[in-house]
Write a structure and sequence with these properties.
With 210 residues, this protein is mostly helical. Helices cover 71% and strands 0% of the residues. 28% of the residues are buried.
């Protein structure tokens, strides 16, 4: 076994004194951060909550993800790519009614899953925030508006194809469906059971004007 050189020995001593950088999976750490934000909201999630769940120290968090706002933005993007991936699939359905049914069912499945935190991250993540979190609250408002805009575009296409009743304005109808989906998220956050959410979805479907 070769002898350690004085230089490598010194480097080893420095590493022992300062602590070796902790290796971690960035994707797994981001998912854990997403779930902390999902459960506690942006302002409620402390740096200690986040770093403990992610299994890293603050220096590693800042070096990899940036500040808390940057981490939240990435967590929110992951939330839309993962748990809310049912939305683009729903928008691709061939009829407006199938789009709505898929959105309602997808929302109910997500929100009634006991493995997930209660409610919807995009709704409750920035509720009851102070002025310091106003930027994050606005970011989520913008994302929800973007989703509503995509739904309005899909309904406009349905309207043009004769698949949507002529008296329904696509933008207003998209706002109506978005309101139902947001309401289901609030009910889930309030502790509604899966059976109760299912009944809400059933009534919503029965009330649709198409």
């Amino acid at each position: 076994m070769p002898h350690e050189t004085p230089q490598s020995a010194a480097e080893t001593a420095v590493e022992i004194k300062m602590g070796r950088p902790r290796c971690f999976c960035e994707d797994a750490a981001l998912e854990k951060a997403m779930r902390v934000f999902w459960e506690k909201g942006y302002e409620g999630a402390t740096l200690a909550d986040l770093t403990t769940a992610m299994g890293i120290n603050r220096s590693s968090m800042y070096a990899t993800f940036g500040d808390k706002q940057s981490l939240f933005r990435r967590a929110l993007a992951l939330y839309f790519e993962g748990p809310m991936s049912y939305i683009p699939k729903a928008l691709a359905k061939p009829t407006a009614r199938e789009v709505i049914d898929a959105l309602l069912e997808g929302s109910m499945d997500l929100l009634s899953d006991s493995a997930n935190p209660r409610g919807c991250l995009s709704v409750q993540g920035a509720l009851a925030t102070g002025t310091e979190a106003a930027e994050m609250k606005q970011a989520m408002i913008d994302l929800r508006r973007q989703g509503e805009s995509l739904l309005a575009e899909r309904f406009q296409r349905a309207h043009d194809e004769g698949d949507l009743p002529a008296h329904l304005a696509p933008a207003d109808f998209a706002r109506y469906i978005s309101t139902i989906l947001t309401g289901i998220g609030v009910q889930a956050a309030n502790g509604s059971t899966p059976a109760e959410l299912q009944r809400i979805v059933r009534i919503a479907k029965q009330s649709l004007p198409l």
